[in-house]
Amino acid sequence: MSQQLNYKIQGEGHTIVLIHGLFGNLDNLGLLARDLVLDHQVLSVDLRNHGQSFHSQTHDYASMAKDIVELLSNLGIKTYTLVGHSMGGKVAMQVANLSRQNTSALIVLDMAPVQYHQRRHDDVFAGLFAVLDHKPASRKEAMAILEQHIDTDGVRQFLSKSLYKEGQHMTWRFNVHSLYQNYLNILAWETQASNTVPTLFIKGANSDYLTREYQPQIQAQYPIAKAHVIANTGHWLHAEKPAEVLRVMRRFLSK
């Protein structure tokens, strides 16, 4: 029997499903949820190997999308809008492909439907494994270990949201070993058949995850997709510029 994802559901109305990215959890899109919950039902999920969802040796888009489709079915939610950031954007695209009749709209935050080749997280994995190896007794100790491997304070702070105390030491809620072993699956993408679900790609202007070179692949897979660029922001656009992201999302959803 398959295991069910951990989730949080808030509000009433048409359901918007919020799907976080790599090393995240269901609170990552919380700034969006806080606004959307005023007039929607918002379902926030912990993907497998993240947050308080189950750990698995399998971590690929087919499996992650199936987890979400099963959760929606178990909750009796028939139609929904999907919103995904980064890795979660690819999960959202895969869900929209699996359940086209049920998906009323798809919003992808700073991610393209392509295979990436650049390894962006080797320093992160080095820091995560160092914490596992050293078994720090406190959050402060864990952060000092991370600092030896990860230069950017914002990245360290983001990762720290998944630290918790297990017995006498701090450890990670996400499954570091599985994510590391499946990293090429996370970079990967199998081209989807053309999908005419109303789709919006929102790009952080300073990010290189969603670039002009990917336009042919996007148009082949999402021929009616719209795109919007949020100025002066990077890959974490929903955290850096939540008001602008929400305004663009709401304008798209109201059409």
UniProtKB/TrEMBL annotation:
Keyword match Hydrolase: yes
Domain of life from the UniProt record: Bacteria
Cited InterPro entries: AB_hydrolase_1, AB_hydrolase_fold
Signal peptide per UniProt: none
Keywords: Hydrolase
Any Pfam family matching the protein: Abhydrolase_6
AB hydrolase-1 domain span: 16-247
Protein name: Alpha/beta fold hydrolase
Organism whose genome encodes this protein: Vibrio olivae
